[in-house]
Amino acid sequence: MSEKIRVENLCKVFGPDPELAMRLLQSGLDKDAIFQQTGMVVGVNHANFHVNEGEIFVLMGLSGSGKSTLIRLLNRLVEPTHGQILLGGHDVASLSNKALVELRRKDMAMVFQSFALLPHLSVLDNTAFGLEVAGVGRQAREKRAMEVLAQVGLQDYARRLPSELSGGMQQRVGLARALAVDPTLMLMDEAFSALDPLMRKEMQDLLLHLQSEQRRTIVFVSHDLEEAFHIGDRIAIMHGGSIVQIGTPNEILRNPSNAYVKAFFKGVDVNKYLLASDIVTRNETLEIRTTADLRADFSGAVEQLKAHQKHHACVVNEAGQWVGMVSVESMLHSLEAPSVSLPAALLVGVEPVVGHISLKEVMRCLVKTNLPLPVVDAAGYYMGTISQQVLLRKMVEEENNHG
Ligand SMILES: Nc1ncnc2c1ncn2[C@@H]1O[C@H](COP(=O)(O)OP(=O)(O)O)[C@@H](O)[C@H]1O
Ligand SMILES: [Mg+2]
């Protein structure tokens, strides 16, 4: 995975004497204290992170936490007070104004919360606007604009004016305009926040759909945890200008770094973001490592299962990789045969799932069977099982933790 953006010790102070504010930050004062002492605002405080190519990276936090300042620092709409931004390995600070303008036109597009469409231009001309500014001829830019309008489902509205469109449709035009220049990097600041919840979800899904085909690098600002978790590959949570945690939705959920982060979970259906590997257990079924002596393995397993009043065992090979599932009955049946054979004892149709599938997918598998669901890792190593009981217990537990 290559790195698209690297940000090191990035700071932004708004005010007449940023150096003074920087010294106060070094001495340990926080944003509030510096504001009280000097009237200056620390917008971003020593941010460190990287964004991988093809990733959706979300900046999340309450209003005023520094998200917009940080995303604007990336394309130097805001000039940094301190620190470094590398874009594809190049220091953004060292770009000449001309190079910066080129970069913003051709390789980086921004989508704002206020759709920022030009009211007197048609949807088509709005979409082609960035291309026009970049000097692309009429025919070529209209062709490209029609292409991206089709991608966002607005091909039939090309001749309309923005005012004739709903809010959701207007933001599709905003998205199309950004896509038109075919940027490798898209910066989206609360792009869907002004939309009603249904339209918002639709835009999120559209973005994910486009992303599955086009693999751009996207930095997305949101104040909403559900949105961040839904679209973000990784999320940076901001508080008072600082990044307080970075991780995948699952990592953040399982291990919130402080109470501020945890407070965002309130009212969110966190089960959606748990994975099979979060709830898999080895306590439900017995694990049998097959040896040369199947008869002994099975006899031992039957005894143990009976002793613990369980019904199923998972068979793994010498290395611990998944082979199949057996039941007390299937083993007894096999033991009666003159030569005990493993294939004959395995339950048919039992397929393991991989640990990184979501609980939602686990549920889909579990409604189809009464057997425990075997889980393996990406290399096929047995991790354990999930039964309907385990799943229910976990969901109730999470509800109590976060609800
Ligand atoms: N141009 C500016 N001048 C002075 N203060 C600013 C300016 N822009 C932002 N701020 C301050 O910087 C902090 C972060 O703002 P912002 O990045 O807009 O937060 P967010 O996008 O998370 O709501 C806030 O305290 C805000 O008041
Ligand atoms: Mg903002």
Furnish the topology, listing elements before pairings.
Blueprint: E1 3-14, H1 18-26, H2 31-38, E2 41-52, E3 56-61, H3 67-74, E4 82-87, E5 90-91, H4 97-106, E6 108-111, H5 123-133, H6 138-151, H7 167-180, E7 185-189, H8 197-214, E8 217-222, H9 225-231, E9 234-239, E10 242-247, H10 249-254, H11 259-263, H12 276-279, E11 286-289, H13 294-307, E12 312-316, E13 322-327, H14 328-336, H15 342-345, E14 353-354, H16 359-366, E15 373-376, E16 382-386, H17 388-402
Parallel strand pairs: 3-8, 3-9, 6-7, 7-8, 11-12, 14-15
Antiparallel strand pairs: 1-2, 1-4, 4-5, 9-10, 12-13, 15-16
The structure holds adenosine-5'-diphosphate (ADP) and magnesium ion.
The site of magnesium ion has 3 residues, from α3.
